[in-house]
Write a structure and sequence with these properties.
A two-stranded antiparallel ribbon has the order 1-2. It starts with 12 loop residues before the first strand and ends in a 13-residue tail after the last helix. The relative contact order is 0.19. By secondary structure, it is of the alpha+beta class.
Length: 109
């Protein structure tokens, strides 16, 4: 956030929630997407944006053939089911140190 300090709220964040796999896109290979494509989300709050994206991924039905444990039902934690990591710590810490809020409102356009 130091890179945007003093920008007077003139910074926006955009997430493309497509081809979501169980691993970050920094690895040199990919798996089948764990859920169908969600779409594009944007916000001036990076923590709220990531929370909304995670909630939408978790609310989606898992794709057959993905790394999500077979039998996981819609509405459960798809992210954790895909990689057995507690992803919530990162967003909680971002909120704790003042990067943003985990609260959001979806406005569809």
């Amino acid at each position: 956030m130091g890179a945007i300090k003093g920008k007077d709220g003139k910074v926006g964040y955009i997430n493309f929630v497509i081809d979501v796999t169980s691993h970050c896109d920094c690895v040199g290979w990919s798996d089948a997407p764990i859920v169908p494509d969600i779409g594009i989300l944007a916000s001036s709050d990076p923590v709220a944006l990531d929370q909304a994206c995670a909630d939408m991924v978790n609310a989606a039905r898992a794709n057959p053939g993905s790394s999500i444990i077979e039998g996981v039902e819609k509405g459960l934690d798809n992210i954790r089911a895909a990689n057995d990591l507690d992803w919530t710590h990162q967003l909680a810490y971002g909120e704790e140190v003042g990067l943003g809020s985990r609260k959001y409102e979806i406005i569809q356009i």
